[in-house]
């Protein structure tokens, strides 16, 4: 199958030039050299791990955090590494809205993090900073929950929710499980 794709691509002059690009040539070589049956999951995972891919099922670690709601109620939550804080909150019935469903287009999943964890996170993007400017109760350690992914270093972290959000009680809706 791959040979047919390469042959048909080579017949198109602009596409043929792409085949000689070093990164594309390496990709074709890697794919062509992976001769394993699709039903062999273990073998496929070993190829993926050797190539630098991470299998979420095999390598994901459970991380436990505590959400502190605006009324002081504490909710323990456990999620897999790589899950964003907004999804984790929704899975555990925490009142964190997320009106844009994680598209970084609102500030309703605004959370306040511990100083140590905040300092260890990658810098927020310009889009996230723009949305944070709209957040109620902004602090120096504020982030959008949809943009913060769980890592093992966050084990035991306490995440404070602001006392209000802009948009949450517009129609009285509460977030629901998807």
What would the average pLDDT be, to the nearest integer? 75
Strand content: 5-15%
Described by its quaternary structure, the protein is single chain
Low-confidence segments: 1-48
Strands of the widest sheet, in order across it, are 2-1-5
Total strands? 5
Helix % is 25-40%
> What's the SSE pattern?
HHHHHEEHEHHEE
Radius of gyration: 22 Å
Question: Largest sheet, if any?
Answer: 3 strands, mixed
* Overall shape: globular
Distance between the termini: 38 Å
Question: Which structural class matches the secondary elements?
Answer: alpha+beta
Q: What count of helical segments does DSSP give?
A: 8
Concise structural overview:
This protein is α+β, with helices and mostly antiparallel strands and 178 residues long.
Tell me about this structure:
By secondary structure, the chain is an alpha+beta fold. Helices cover 35% and strands 13% of the residues. It has helices at residues 2-10, 13-19, 22-33, 41-50, 56-59, 85-91, 115-120, 126-132; strands at residues 62-68, 74-80, 110-112, 142-144, 158-160. It has a three-stranded mixed β-sheet with strand order 2-1-5, with helices on one face. A two-stranded antiparallel ribbon has the order 3-4.
Characteristic key phrases:
disordered N terminus; 13% strand; two-stranded antiparallel sheet; 8 helices; 178 residues; three-stranded mixed beta sheet; alpha+beta; globular
């Amino acid at each position: 199958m791959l040979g047919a794709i390469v042959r048909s691509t080579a017949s198109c002059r602009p596409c043929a030039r792409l085949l000689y690009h070093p990164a594309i040539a390496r990709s074709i070589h890697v794919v062509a050299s992976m001769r394993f049956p699709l039903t062999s999951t273990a073998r496929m995972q070993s190829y993926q791990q050797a190539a630098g891919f991470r299998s979420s099922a095999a390598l994901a670690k459970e991380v436990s955090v505590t959400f502190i709601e605006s009324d002081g109620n504490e909710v323990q939550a456990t999620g897999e590494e790589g899950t964003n804080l907004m999804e984790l909150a929704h899975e555990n019935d925490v009142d964190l809205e997320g009106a844009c469903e994680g598209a970084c287009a609102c500030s309703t999943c605004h959370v306040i993090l511990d100083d140590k964890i905040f300092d260890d996170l990658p810098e927020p993007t310009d889009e996230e900073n723009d949305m944070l400017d709209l957040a109620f109760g902004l602090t120096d350690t504020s982030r959008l929950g949809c943009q913060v992914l769980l890592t093992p270093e966050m084990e035991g972290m306490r995440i404070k929710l602001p006392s209000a959000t802009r948009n949450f009680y517009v129609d009285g809706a509460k977030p629901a499980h998807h």
